[in-house]
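Protocol step 4 of 5: obtain the predicted structure for the target chain.
Materials: sequence only (see below). No template structures provided, no constraints applied. The aim of this step is simply to have a reference model before the mutagenesis design in step 5. Sequence pasted as it appears in the construct record:
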Amino acid sequence: MAFTPTTYDPYDFANRRHIGPSPAEMDEMLKAVGVPSLGALIEETIPASIRQEKPLGWEPLAEHELLERMRHVAAKNKVMTSLIGQGYYGTVTPPAIQRNILENPAWYTAYTPYQPEIAQGRLEALLNYQTMVCDLTGLDVANASLLDEATAAAEAMVMAQRLAKSKAGAFFVDENCHPQTIAVIQTRALPLGIEVIVAAPEALEPGAVFGAIFQYPGTHGHVRDFTDAIAALHAAKAVAVVATDLLALCLLKEPGAMGADIAVGSSQRFGVPMGYGGPHAAFMACKDDMKRQMPGRIVGVSIDARGNKAYRLSLQTREQHIRREKATSNVCTAQALLAVMASFYAVFHGPRGLRAIAERVHFNTVRVAGALKAAGANVQPEAFFDTITVEVGVGQQGIMAAARHRGINLRKVGRDRVGISLDETTSDDVIRRLLDAFGITDAAPAPHGPGVPGALLRQSDYLTHPVFQMNRAESEMMRYMRRLSDRDLALDRAMIPLGSCTMKLNAAAEMMPITWPEFGALHPFCPPDQAAGYAEAIDDLSAKLCEITGYDAFSMQPNSGAQGEYAGLLTIQAWHRARGEGHRDVCLIPVSAHGTNPASAQMCGMKVVVVKSSPNGDVDVEDFRAKAEAAGANLAACMITYPSTHGVFEETVREICAITHQHGGQVYIDGANMNAMVGLVKPGEIGGDVSHLNLHKTFAIPHGGGGPGMGPIGVRAHLAPYLPGHPETGGDEGPVSAAPYGSASILLISWAYCLMMGGAGLTQATRVAILNANYIAARLRGAYQVLFMGNRGRVAHECILDTRPFAEAGVTVDDIAKRLIDNGFHAPTMSWPVAGTLMVEPTESETKAEIDRFITALLAIRAEIAAVEAGEIAAEDSPLRHAPHTVEDLVADWSRKYSREQGCFPPGAFRVDKYWPPVGRIDNVYGDRNLICTCPPVEDYAQAAE
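Step 4 output (structure tokens):
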């Protein structure tokens, strides 16, 4: 018998690792859908008029080939000791945190905790983060993280404008703020008509401003007490913001003790690598009476159905997806994973450990300053924490070159000074090499005392809650991390079928390089020749994204999807201004658009005009045309999502783009649903001028429990000159993020994804994502109504299930979502874009078995609803209303009108490996009425339960 070699390729990442269904399973699914082939399904789903003709062209790499390529590229980066400072510092990531948090899919594959019953671990870690920030800043309430220090400062400016009783129209910025912070504030202020005054603190005129921000310590090291300046601001009814450093606050007087209203900064140096700019968790804290105006998410404490303590996101009515064009911020993605890391760093070290690290950093800086002064150098300032500036005259370049020769980067300050910022990683050897670059061979003298006046040393205690006092043996730390992760449901346990959020595989091979020091240890402002590997990766990823989208250029700066929207609209506005049409300020946005769309337009100073939807969910073209004509010469842009938020490829997309262009506007296509387009449709070819891409969705960056994300923007050639610039890299337009390439280290994940998938693999992923969604729609037909479909009865990569008819029987969309937890599933997206519905997106990564398990769960839930409809059981007595069921429910006295078996082990649930939620249904109203946003004393929980 002739030998027949196998055609199976075990190294085919796209088809054997990333795409869930096997070829045989796809055949079964196609039969259920009622089409003969995958190609036929695509023809029925995507209008032929918009499909791209040329396939994506690069070949895939196997996982081992990718890692070899990554090692080669990483070697092109030069890892130096960067003493540049400016908001970025060397830090030590405890291995227990790196292995058990950063490299653990239980933490990095989770979704934003909008379903709090299955996110109690993350929520506790984030509550620890908020407590840490409140304690160190001396303020009452903190949020669960923002994107970076510069954007947090810009958010604080806008928050101050809302809160201030002063009628002034200007905002004061301390010239000692970091340059990137000043630049981002100026970017944010321009479209809002806010005048920004940058000057020395002594030049502040409190009556002329609605608020001010001071840097503490300053970018060049100055430590000064702002108590009097803050009091003067308050007397003028203005708001005081302090940008600060958490490690410094372990030693220095806290902003709250100075009377500050708001504090912002970065928690990067709490164990999070620099990563050439990110991701890092920024923080914001404020006084209690300001909390309802604070942007971002706030974790609070509530109770569950049994009165047990439970965590949840509080005050969600502040958020952009609810307030839309009336939103005060477009913040959507946070930096949850990095905030978790920083919080565990504080738990790992405790207050004494943090104090010891801060003292070592400070006294090392005192030593270096003393040695330089002894050698005759002019060292400033007099009072400092970790940063000094040395006057070197015409020898500036020579000193910096000598330091680089010894493996150290210094900061160039003006033409005749250099800046030095020490950090946790500074050793005696680093100090020796540093001083040697200045020609100093004598050992740095031991300090006689701190380098700040006694009045500026911290007097108050911090991190007094028991969680920061726990035994820090690694065994105990490891178990605490494990206990918290066990309370959560992430992609490592089950499918997360969230519409519009694309919770797909985050492959291990894609994640590995980000923890390599060649990528993690680079300062974002290091000399470009030290980041040649990053340049190669970013350039190649940009080229591939251009090929995928049909755009001509990309900016990698926006570090979230909402920031991408904002940056894209700013780019459009800059183009209009350059053409002498700066008056164009109307933005047409369909009613079905993402909540960030109108919020981003509002932040750009645009007038949002809402466009109706047709009964089938499409954009109402006639209403769009009428409103475009009404705007006329004032039309700046339209913002549309494609395929639509309703999960349909609208056939009128080219017409909508043409109408916009006819009236002189630009077309912004929201890239949130790009997972239905890659390899099949190019937004830049169907009329789009600019799009952002959610790399944390389509391009495999993990969601991290609510961040990090990246939202780079692609533009047509005419817009390319108006992309965001940056003080460190040039460019005419202002930056939108603190670092030139945003959260640069996680761009490596998307690059690795593109390299391993190849062009054909990416296209196949899109096709299978569409198959999986249509399979669910077909299997659920008759049990649930699929709300919107294309002209040929197909959905795109997601489908909307209408649960509103069940309300007549008293069954809510919440009941269905919580009942899915009993089946071991995260709920689909609830009540968006249509209230009372579930939007389901399976992605291409889910296997047929997991999708079938999900379908089984939904069909069983439908049977329970039918029992309520038939009068066999009341809604309030049914397992739907009591869901989710906990172990405590299982073992407690049982008087319910259904069996324990039905309640706790519904069809679709695993029996041996069943997921048990740690708490029952959470009382949201109680949590908002009794707002607790820091770790409360244990006795408070007992009182709450009573």
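Step 4 remarks: The chain is about 35% helix and 10% strand. Residues 938-946 have pLDDT under 50 and may be disordered.
Proceed to step 5.
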